[in-house]
Design a protein that fits this description.
The complex is a heterodimer of chains A (110) and B (187). Chain A has 110 residues and is an all-alpha fold. Chain A has three helices and no strands. The chains are: A mainly alpha (110), B mainly alpha (187).
């Protein structure tokens, strides 16, 4: 057998191979659902995503503020009775002082 | 292909299903290239799928002024195949099974022996010679296109193809001589 004939037949055989019929369906099924994405290294892509980043920042700030207010109000509820007790003590001390003064005034008159 | 541009424009505008036209049109070229570089048909299927997924994701980067869509796909296919080959262990001198591409026109056993020998010789070529040979001799792509795919000068492509052919012929000639002298063959 001639080597060139063998080579030619072998090349023809290699050329004649073809993919399975369902390869197109397989590829299409694997495509991501979204439309063609803007390349990641394209500067315009950063512009595209900037508004959503700003909104994320605003939402995060608002959430932090709400959390802070809730903590403050919870601490107020806990601390307020203590403050009221202190007021009562002070009021009681004032009343006792007044009572003492009145007694002294009565004693001095008599 | 000029029609590719209009289809690409549709896909870029959001018509994902239009991409099927590009897949139908070019999958055979990509698959045959991958199949001739990789060992198994399943690997070629996977590589072809990866090439088209990459093409879909990077479609905005395709510039028709720099080459045809097929050239762009083959460039990515080459990278895919090189990556896959570098991840797997080197191929043995002779593949386990003969390439399955239909029955032989004459004596099946005899031709399979010859082809097995050539399959093994192709697998043993340096990668850059193998890709150039597959593109030039099996896929019959013009040398200037191969130069664009491989990112080398035209002369380099010619040199690689020439060396690859010489190696395959040498491997075949040794075998022909052995056959003529009655030597026992162990492909």
């Amino acid at each position: 057998m001639n080597a060139e004939d063998v080579l030619r037949d072998w090349l023809a055989r290699r050329r004649s191979a073809s993919p399975t019929e369902d390869l197109t369906d397989r590829i299409m099924a694997a495509l991501p659902a979204e439309s063609v994405a803007v390349p990641a290294d394209d500067p315009s892509s950063h512009r595209q995503y900037r508004p959503s980043r700003i909104w994320s920042g605003i939402l995060a700030g608002a959430a932090t503020l709400v959390l802070g207010l809730r903590i403050y109000s919870a601490l107020s509820v806990i601390a307020t009775p203590v403050a009221m007790d202190a007021d009562d003590v002070e009021l009681q001390q004032v009343n006792e002082l007044r009572k003492g003064n009145d007694e002294r005034r009565l004693a001095s008159r008599t | 292909m000029d029609d590719d541009q209009s289809v690409i424009a549709q896909v870029r505008a959001g018509a994902t299903n239009a991409f099927r036209i590009l897949v139908d049109r070019h999958q055979a070229v990509v698959w045959v290239f991958c199949r001739n570089l990789l060992r198994h048909a399943d690997d070629a299927d996977d590589a072809t799928q990866d090439v088209f997924l990459l093409a879909y994701r990077k479609l905005d980067q395709y510039d028709s002024a720099r080459g045809s869509f097929a050239t762009w796909l083959l460039t990515m296919a080459r990278s895919q195949c090189c990556n896959r080959l570098s991840q797997h262990r080197p191929m043995e001198a002779v593949p386990e099974s003969v390439w399955d591409a239909g029955p032989s026109p004459t004596s099946a056993t005899s031709d399979e022996d010859w082809w097995r020998r050539l399959d093994g010789a192709l697998a043993m070529l340096p990668l850059e010679q193998r890709t150039a040979f597959v593109l030039a001799e099996i896929q019959e792509r013009p040398h200037h296109e191969i130069a664009a795919i491989e990112g080398v000068e035209l002369g380099t492509v010619k040199s690689r193809v020439s060396r690859a052919k010489a190696r395959l012929r040498a491997a075949l000639s040794d075998w022909v001589e052995a056959t003529a002298t009655g030597g026992k063959l162990h492909p």
